[in-house]
Amino acid sequence: MTTTQPIEYPPAPRTTARWITTIAVAALAWVALYSHLTEIADALVAALGLSRATHFGEAVHFFLYDTPKVLLLLTGIVFLMGVVQTFFAPERTRALLSGRRLGVGNAMAASLGIVTPFCSCSAVPLFIGFLSAGVPLGVTFSFLIAAPMVNEVALALLFGLFGWKVAALYLGLGLLVAIVAGLVIGKLKMERHLEDWVRAIHAGEAAAHTGERLSWVQRFEAGRDHVREIVAKVWPYVLAGIALGAGIHGYVPEDFMASIMGRDAWWAVPAAVVLGVPMYTNAAGIIPIVEALIGKGAALGTVLAFMMAVIALSAPEMIILRKVLKPRLIATFAGVVASGILLVGYVFNLVL
């Protein structure tokens, strides 16, 4: 007598309607949870038998409030940008930039840097690809600067923590730094300061865009995969940044930061840039620290200058760039970008 084995069917693929239903339910849950974070943190602190009147209790409350807040913002915006980025594959980005004139090309490169998924280190291989495709050096630098500095994570977290005015000012000034720095480097005609093997790359035709058309199901799946990849990569930075921010929030005396990073200390902006360069983290890890520093009286422009230096002028990026650029071009790149960040810091302190 033979027994019939149950037949295993592959899971049915999600349809567009199922994806839209899932996203709608997730969005409602996201809003409900985000709008009650304070009550949840209060309840957890009380359940632990802590009081916010103590330094430790206040630090724990900061951690319990900010951790879900940052992770919710991160998940939502990374999914959205994962969908948006399906319209900007690397070969399409390269094709869009090839043959563009200075000025128009710089503005387009800086704008594409916002919506393309590259950090400061992963943008370097693409930088080489752009040069080999004949994209002008200054235009390529505008992309290299904007991609890590004005990314979707930084904008989403700034919007969630400080409001649209700060996020919009950061976006506008960040793009301005990337465009002007690319124009300056382009005008200096520094192609001879590329490493010899990079200069030897034959400037061929830009890779043609395949013209592949993705379905909305594939775009939603790309957004889901983007969340899995990015959140899985940055959550330790998030927790470390929030833990450090919680320590600052709970234990640093009121007005201490105002005395060393406030508007009155003119030297604080350049000092923050110099301090930020040797460090390396990403926007998700540094923004909780920014929030805590500002809460203790530090000036917004000074703290954002520190954040931009960490993200856009990190030591690991300089080491990778040394493989493709000669020291004079690296020094010019760092000097131009640092000057732009200084300007952003002083403008923020003046305006806000």
Average pLDDT for all residues: 78
How big a fraction of the residues is strand? under 5%
- Helix percent reads over 70%
What class do helices, strands and sheet pairing give?
mainly alpha
Task: Report the major sheet.
Answer: none
Q: Could you give the count of β-strands?
A: 0
Terminal CA distance? 83 Å
Low-confidence stretches: 202-211
Shape: globular
Oligomerization:
single chain
Order of helices and strands: HHHHHHHHHHHHHHHHH
With helices defined by DSSP (H or I, 4 residues minimum), what is the helix count? 17
Descriptive overview:
It contains 17 helices and no strands. It is mainly α. Helix 3 packs antiparallel against helix 11 (216-251). The longest helix has 36 residues, at 216-251. 38% of the residues are buried. Mean pLDDT is 78; it is low at 202-211.
Any descriptors?
mainly alpha; 17 helices; 352 residues
Short overview:
By secondary structure, the chain is an all-alpha fold. The protein has helices at 16-34, 37-47, 55-84, 90-97, 104-115, 123-132, 137-149, 152-162, 164-187, 196-199, 216-251, 256-261, 268-276, 283-295, 300-312, 315-321, 327-351.
Q: What is the fold's blueprint, element by element?
A:
Elements (H helix, E strand, L loop, with lengths): L15 H19 L2 H11 L7 H30 L5 H8 L6 H12 L7 H10 L4 H13 L2 H11 L1 H24 L8 H4 L16 H36 L4 H6 L6 H9 L6 H13 L4 H13 L2 H7 L5 H25 L1
Helix pairs in contact: 2-3, 3-8, 3-11, 5-7, 5-9, 6-7, 7-9, 8-9, 8-14, 9-17, 11-14, 13-15, 14-15, 15-17
